[in-house]
Amino acid sequence: xxTGSKPDISREKSAELYEKAKNYFPGGVNxxxxxxxxxxxxxxxxxxxxxxxxxxxxxxxxxxFCASWGPxxxxxxxxxxxxxVTEVMQNGMSFGAPTALENELAELIIKNNRFVEKIRFTxxxxxxxxxxxxxxxGYTGRDKIIKFEGCYHGHTDSLLVKAGSGLVTFGETSxxxxxxxxxxxxxxxxxxxxxxxxxxxxxxxxxxxxxxxxGIPANNGLLMQDAAYIEFLQxxxxxxxxxxxxxxxxxxxxxxxxxxxxHYGVKPDIVTYGKIIGGGLPVGMYGASAEIMGHxxxxxxxxxxxxxxxxxxxxxAGIAQLTELLRSGFYKDLNNKTSEFAESIQRFxxxxxxxxxxxxxxxxFWIAFTDKxxxxxxxxxxxxxxxxxxxxxxxxxxxxxxxxPSGYEVGFVSAAHTKIELEKAKRAIFDxxxxxx
Length: 437
Ligand code: PLP
What we know:
single chain; about 425 residues; alpha/beta; eight-stranded mixed sheet; binds pyridoxal-5'-phosphate
């Protein structure tokens, strides 16, 4: 039964705060997607989060699937994380000197992850990726980087580049302020395309320092790559003495403790992490073999630093969160919950002949308005379908479900989502889809 569109929730206080914020920040926000430009209404100003819920300034409660864009795999305000952070904070906030906490988080990561022997902590995913690129260039003595259309790696200059025309091209800058000469060092290829890779390595023989790819591309929908393609990618990098960088800022500690690299069974040369390792505080990280990491200063000539890198409070949050993830059965439970959730939305839509496809892996899901069985490249996405997402997003907010405010963004299930809330969320999604179609 189509229950019809729900009346809009009150956004009065959020609207007031947003008006104020516009005086202070471009677009009223500190990160563009938060401005709700591609969905209806004013951005919601969040006041509080607990478990799988958030509350906005008007007191509306939502089941949250944005999870601060991924870091909150245990949900909001997790007691273990909060207690550890509170304990560590009593001793001061930052020293700009080594602390035992850095060792503790590093040990948790390195002992349980076969892809890194040595690591560096940064304060964001962007910094981690930027440093990984510099390391690859310093290590190989080459300048060119290959990236993929549809992958996002943060807002570092050389990666804010999109595909130009033609199969193998230098990219075009995708932000004003990025020098053309930077884009000249970035080759942008379509995902899941072995021919394009071959052509690029032929054309730029002995010039490519690294290929960077998201573990599972999850910033432009969820673009599942063929396992054979990822294996091919690893092989062609090896043949050409180019490094393979896996950007696991989303997938790291999300698909499992060892991320997408373990999922595919490949061994990237450099891995970047962020989001989950900070337990909700600002932490990024890159790591590699001891040999490659030996090129970072002060041991080697590749410079990288940070006033707040390895910040003790952030380390404490990471330690508490990762410790929980190592509990036996953690990922199995979380991933099972997610597949049940995604599959039942798919079943509902299929039964009703609604053209949607729910892509999911681990605890990441993406509801695509499409009748394609596979969406593996940015070009496969139907941009007009985002109008349908907009309607669904509004209907979901009005039914107490918070998804990130863009149809290109994935959703995250956390350990704090219980069967009860997932059941409620499913009902709300069903009713919203009835309105959309
Ligand atoms: N890499 C990937 C795959 C990301 O998804 C993001 C952010 O969403 C980044 C890098 C940049 O991380 P941050 O936003 O922490 O700078």
